[in-house]
Amino acid sequence: MSEENKPAGDDELAEAIVRHEWNQFQNTNNEGGRASCQGNWPVFHQMRLSQFLTWPEGLRRSYADDLDEADRVGRNLVTEKYGRMMASTAPEQYRKTIEPYIPKLSAERVARQEAVIRRQVAWAADFRARYPHLGEAMRVLTTAEDTPDKTSFETYLRGELGTYSDRTLALYEVMVEARRKAGENLTELTILNTVRIGGFDGLDDAEAQLARA
What we know:
The chain is about 65% helix and about 0% strand. The chain is mostly helical. Pfam families: DUF4125. This is DUF4125 family protein.
């Protein structure tokens, strides 16, 4: 069965990863108190599961190991992800209160991540052009559009990739390249899962219903 035709939500490992991330998310402290999204398990589950269902098993297992190792050494990858995003959304605070306390990425590692980010931003832009109503529900696209209260797809992805182990990033690069060679769009596959979990038949059905709203 192809990834596109695979029923959403049927993978125990993906479900376990989402639950593990949720547990770390509950321990993420936000300036100004607990964020409302920290109490919204259904949306968190839908968004994160949609992503992990596009991943091959080896990548999932590697990231599951990353989460386990983070627990073992006292890191919180979800907290760190949001902290890394602040390099764009709150740069002064990031430099003073976050950057000194998270792992520093090498220039080679950053370059590899940026190559992945360019590919995924292009996929997201292509998807938004073909499904404008679904696209309106997405984050803004590029880091240039970030504000203190609005984090783009590009910045979010940069924050997330920065938390992966070297092994997980390498497997992620392999997946992205495989999708590219197959003519697939990772944003499209992810949102296909999202709308199916949300009860739509597929992307065209979701787009049409949003157009009528």
